[in-house]
Amino acid sequence: MSDSKPTSGFDRRSFMAGVAGAAVMPMTARGQGPAASAPAAQDPSAPVEMTLRVNGKDHTLSIDARTALLDALREHLGLTGSKKGCDHGQCGACTVLVDGRRVLSCLTLAVATLGKDISTIEGLAQGDRLHPMQQAFVDQDAFQCGYCTPGQIMSAIACVREGHADSEDDIREYMSGNICRCAAYPNIVAAVKQAVPEIAKG
Amino acid sequence: MRPFTYQRASDPNAAMAALAASRGNNPTDPAVQALAGGTTLIDLMKLDVMHPQALVDINPLAGNWSEVSLDGGNLRLGALARMSDVSAHPEVQRNYPVIAESLQLAASPQLRNMATLGGNVLQRTRCSYFRDVSYANCNKRNPGSGCAAMDGVNRMHAVLGTSDQCIATYPGDFAQALIALDANVEITGKSGTRSLPFAQLHKRPGNTPHIETTLAPGELISAFTIDGRWPRSVYLKARDRQSYEFALSSAAVALDVRDGIVQDARVALGGVATVPWRAREAEALLKGLKFDNGLAGRVAEAAFAGAQPREHNAFKIDLGKRVVARALHKAATMEI
């Protein structure tokens, strides 16, 4: 895979992007995270140079300061596993791990993640071997349409690591930030339960 | 979202210098805005309710501003501590269950990992007319424009502390614990640090619902402090869903009971008022008496004595009384 673009090849996404004629961002970049104290001196329309560390790999981007981490992942790095549901922090579909903690990438500014390790659904599998939580979601049929699933899986991994998966009640409470409109909840609870011992093994 | 500049504050002085540019601006929509967890701010910027021209990222200050310490029986909570970390802190859970529970019952695990204590108490109302800019008439967002909620869908709105200008509910949970325990808030500004009772931080809407706090432009909350320990305390929250939902009605209760007699009692209400709400007259009824459920009922009645419902939210008064009575019972009977 190239540094910041998805591998080429025809898919629905690149077709739609091509038809829409995506605009090219001018590259008059300013540095990431200026520590100066003169906001008026900066041009808010100028792109910001930033480095995102995603799944263990550094990516250098020059993008608008407004870009949410979710949009940086999806639109600029081609990592479309993290999903945009509500875009307002209410559904959990965009859940990723930042320095090991589950957060909502739609309410996180990409520019504010400097120096942090971002983990997404794309980084879980090792080759053809699924992460135990991914395998558990398959085994337990823990989705129907699948749109919320990447967020559910990232959230579930953190839920187990936090020690909040000891009982079904705990799992329901600590997975409440991930909405499933297909209501696959009983199967999601079963999947999280299945993965607990596997993840505990490390 | 409108364009803004982004800068990172490496230390409090740099933050103060950067935020000083916001002096003289609209107090609730300043041109320069501090970014902490971002869970309210980024959301409201996407909705075009808030439109800062510059963001000052204060997260690098967390090294000094996120400590949780219990020294000599007094609690200090750094304003940049995350909700999830404080709710899981063993000393907080043991000595201040009302704080741990108020944080744990709020939002979702992801939001609690992001949101800071300082940002949490400053979160904006969830009034749908405030959040939807297609409604022109919102005195909080657009002073003098009227209030669409008065005769609109107001099931979620406040029954206490309202005015004829605004009935928007203060949505948080943690603030009720703070106001119940007589917390102080430490505020850092360009000229240094000041402290004031948490009860004086938020302002009732009155004729100026757009002015929500007594913070001056450019000031930041740096810590919260609480004197003494409150092991006999609870936070009870009633809501439409069992989890991940704002309160329809909630109660923060703390009791000091010795030899069966209530020595001190604190009652604060959430989900029903325009600001974090302390029910002082109601809690005073408990002092010097032996707790029983009849007394709890009288306290609950007193807590809502001044409530003023609108078309859809009268149910909050009955619900709120039951929440207060049950929270009192829970606190009085808990084993510590």
Mind explaining what this structure looks like?
The complex is a heterodimer of chains A (202) and B (336). Chain A is of the alpha+beta class. Chain A has helices at residues 12-20, 69-76, 132-139, 149-161, 168-174, 185-201, and strands spanning 48-54, 57-63, 95-98, 101-104, 117-119. A 5-stranded mixed sheet of chain A has the order 2-1-5-3-4, sandwiched between helices. In chain A, strand 3 and strand 4 form a beta hairpin. The radius of gyration of chain A is 18 Å and the shape is elongated. Chain B is built from 13 helices and 12 strands. By secondary structure, chain B is α+β, with helices and mostly antiparallel strands. Among the domains of chain B are: 5-60, 2-Layer Sandwich (Uridine Diphospho-n-acetylenolpyruvylglucosamine Reductase, domain 2), CATH 3.30.43.10; 234-333, Enolase-like, domain 1 (2-Layer Sandwich). The chains are: A alpha+beta (202), B alpha+beta (336). The A-B interface holds A 33-37, 39-40, 42-45, 48, 64-66, 68, 87-89, 92, 95, 101-104, 107-109, 111-112, 114, 155, 158-159, 162, 164, 172-178 and B 1, 3-10, 14, 17-18, 21, 32, 35, 38-39, 42-43, 46-47, 53-57, 59, 84, 107-111, 113-114, 241-244.
Give the SSE layout:
The complex is a heterodimer of chains A (202) and B (336).
Chain A: H1 12-20, E1 48-54, E2 57-63, H2 69-76, E3 95-98, E4 101-104, E5 117-119, H3 132-139, H4 149-161, H5 168-174, H6 185-201
Parallel strand pairs in A: 1-5
Antiparallel strand pairs in A: 1-2, 3-4, 3-5
Helix pairs in contact in A: 3-6, 4-6
Chain B: E1 5-8, H1 12-19, E2 32-35, H2 41-46, E3 54-57, H3 62-65, E4 68-71, E5 74-78, H4 83-87, H5 90-95, H6 97-104, H7 109-114, H8 117-121, H9 128-131, H10 174-180, E6 184-189, E7 192-197, E8 220-226, E9 233-238, E10 249-258, E11 261-270, E12 277-278, H11 280-284, H12 293-303, H13 315-333
Helix pairs in contact in B: 6-10, 12-13
